[in-house]
Design a protein that fits this description.
Elements (H helix, E strand, L loop, with lengths): L6 H9 L7 H21 L11 H36 L6 H42 L6 H26 L4 H15 L2 H16 L1
Helix pairs in contact: 2-3, 2-4, 2-5, 3-4, 4-5, 4-6, 4-7, 5-6, 5-7
Length: 208
């Protein structure tokens, strides 16, 4: 979906009265922007004589950041599909006991997917945050500010996607499933805020 549309079209969609794209898509794009910025710093570091000692490491980071960028971009469509499935489930008929039971089962199945999709976004955003420290420490000083923007974008994506995990997990009857996902989420959030600030201050220290 978002791979072929312009930024303006995506933002118009966010601003419209349509429920999708929404916060989930915005979270994924935030993470993807963070990954893209890490890739940019890597690309402007690799091949420079001054940074030859870190070239191999940043090539590895570049491969990972590009994979994450692709994954996170694809999650925009995943979020739309998950939301549409939940809304479709709530719209099912409920005139008879059989219909009510089928509707409830479909809703619960859709909510599980709608919990897992943003959780996957959280995982990827956290990976971007983790990579940002290496880039901030070893990247080209001429563009090091972009490593700071990268970690901020990824952290925003992580915390934003977390909100969608919370809201969908809340509606699950399968509490074991919900608690397992929430536990993983708390691990992903963990020290992400501290790491975000650490990378930001590291970058700032190289600029002032």
């Amino acid at each position: 979906m978002a791979r072929s549309e312009t930024i303006e079209a995506f933002l118009d969609g966010l601003a419209s009265s349509a429920p999708t794209p929404g916060g989930g898509g915005a979270a994924a794009i935030s993470g993807a922007m963070g990954a893209a910025l890490l890739s940019m710093v890597c690309n402007l570091t690799i091949g420079k004589k001054k940074y030859v000692e870190v070239e191999a490491e940043l090539k590895d980071v570049l491969a990972k950041s590009e994979a994450l960028r692709a994954t996170l971009t694809g999650m925009i469509a995943d979020d739309v599909a998950a939301f549409d499935a939940v809304m479709g489930a709530y719209g099912l008929p409920k005139a008879t006991d059989e219909e009510k039971a089928a509707r409830a089962e479909t809703i619960q199945a859709a909510l599980k997917v709608a919990t897992d999709v943003p959780l996957a976004c959280c995982r990827s955003c956290r990976e971007v945050i983790d990579l940002a420290r290496t880039v901030a420490e070893k990247g080209n000083l001429n563009v090091i500010s972009d490593a700071g923007v990268a970690v901020l974008s990824a952290h925003a994506g992580l915390r934003s996607a977390a909100l969608n995990v919370y809201v969908n997990a809340k509606g699950l009857d399968d509490r074991a499933f919900a608690e397992e996902r929430l536990s993983e989420l708390e691990t992903l959030l963990g020290d992400a805020g501290t790491l975000n600030e650490t990378v930001y201050e590291l970058v700032k220290g190289k600029l002032v």
